[in-house]
Here is the input.
Amino acid sequence: MITLGIETSCDETSCAVLENGNCIRSNVISSSLSKHKPFGGVVPEIASRHCLEAIDAVFRAALRQATISESEIGLIAVTRGPGLIGSLLVGVSFAKALAFAWKKPLVGVHHLWAHLFGNFIAREKPAKPFVGLIVSGGHTTVAWIDGFHFEELGSTIDDAIGEAYDKTAKILGLGYPGGPAIDRLAQKGDSKAFTFTKPKIDGAFDMSFSGIKTAVLHIVNGYGEMGYKKSKWKRNQISDLCASFQSAVTDWVIEKTMLACEKKKSRVVAVGGGVSANSRLRSVLADECKLRGYDLYLPPLELTLDNGAMVARMGYELYRRGVRSSLDMTADSSPAFDFIDSACGA
Ligand code: KG4
Ligand code: ZN
Here is the structure.
């Protein structure tokens, strides 16, 4: 069974060809990242225009690299949300046109489910049940996934963790996207140089990341505990701040994930989203899971950012369970978490 996976939820345009849910024949990604850099964040209009301009070439490249013809495709899977509506519409319209013209089955996919299921590409069956940690530029969620059931245990009440990385990097003049830049500098810094207070929140599994960005701003402006003036900063002081920031935010999400495992008596954790590329998150989570005897699924680095392969994997799983979307399916910037509803919503 050959699945074509199409992903256009934000600034990436990606098409992938997946064989039997576990063999990636191609995974072509075109990013509009460089066009957003001058603005310090994703500009929705630029992202959707890029998707529109890139989708046809990306699709053809994916078929070429996989050395397959149109007639060999058995299923078309596409992200229908969450994401930027202009970008989503490009992928969904493209997928529906292909499904109509080729008379092939179509399945709509929830983007966050897809991030988690990207972990199971090398496996015949997804792990179940498991605690899922979704950490991206738009979402920070801890969930319990049991078969088709997605229970959101907690999520950020303000900024997403990736957003906190991006905003902090902007304050520090490190450019966009901030995650990789902070991660690089953090590896050379002292994580104990600055202390950040853990936010107090009502929900046991909820998180907050907007306060730490403001704390960084105060430090940079010279009002913080260390009283540094930005002009007098040396490179190693910025590395120390990056290391302290990184240590704090990764500890917070790891703590909630471990708490979720205890509550649900789960011994399996799967992580997804752009921030799953973070070196400290990966290594500390691996240590914590090893200590407790938990199985940990982390996506390979090339699958941490948005990609069509994870969408194909998720679509394949839905298809195997009899789910089909109709041509009435629409893009949805915030679809239901429900496995079936998010695939079929019209
Ligand atoms: O999942 P993603 O591609 O976008 C959304 O769907 O939102 O994730 C992008 C986010 C950005 O905020 C970026 O700064 C962050 O992932 N990111 C990282 C790293 N690499 C990317 N954050 C921390 N450490 C990294 N190594
Ligand atoms: Zn994503």
Notes: Residues 111, 115, 136, 273, 306 surround zinc ion (ligand 2) (CB under 6 Å).
